[in-house]
Amino acid sequence: MRWPRSMSRYTVSPSLSILPPNAQLVSFRRAFLTAVLRSMNKRYLILAGCVTDQCVAHAVMDACDMGYMVTLVPEATATYSQQRQDAALEAIKGYCRMRSVEELALELLQPAVAAPS
C-alpha cells in the first residue's frame, strides 16, 4: 500500500494499530484517521496517551461523538498533576468505559463471542 505524503506522519504498526502524531489535539477530526478507521470497519477503540485533561479527553469525546465504542486505560494516561488527572477522568467517564491494563488484557484474551442473529 502506498501512502500519500500527507499520511506519512501516521504510524501503522504490523498489527494495524494506528498511532496518530502526538502534535494534534483532536486526532479524530483529521480526515485521514477517520477514513482509515472507517475503511477498516473499526467500531471499538482503545485509547491511552499524555495530557489526560487535554489531548486524551478530546480524543475520547470526539471518538464517542463519532460513534466509536471507546475504552480508556487510565493507568496508561498522564497529565501535569494528580488533581488534573482525577478531574479529567471524572469528566470523561460518561464517554467511555475504563479498564486497567490487567482487566483489558484479560478481556482481549477471551475468545470472541458471535453476535446473536
UniProtKB/TrEMBL annotation:
Database matches in Gene3D superfamilies: Isochorismatase-like
Family membership: Belongs to the isochorismatase family.
InterPro entries: Isochorismatase-like_dom (IPR000868), Isochorismatase-like_hydrls (IPR050272), Isochorismatase-like_sf (IPR036380)
Source domain of life: Eukaryota
Domain Isochorismatase-like: 33-95
Protein keywords: Hydrolase
GO MF: hydrolase activity
The protein, known as: Isochorismatase-like domain-containing protein
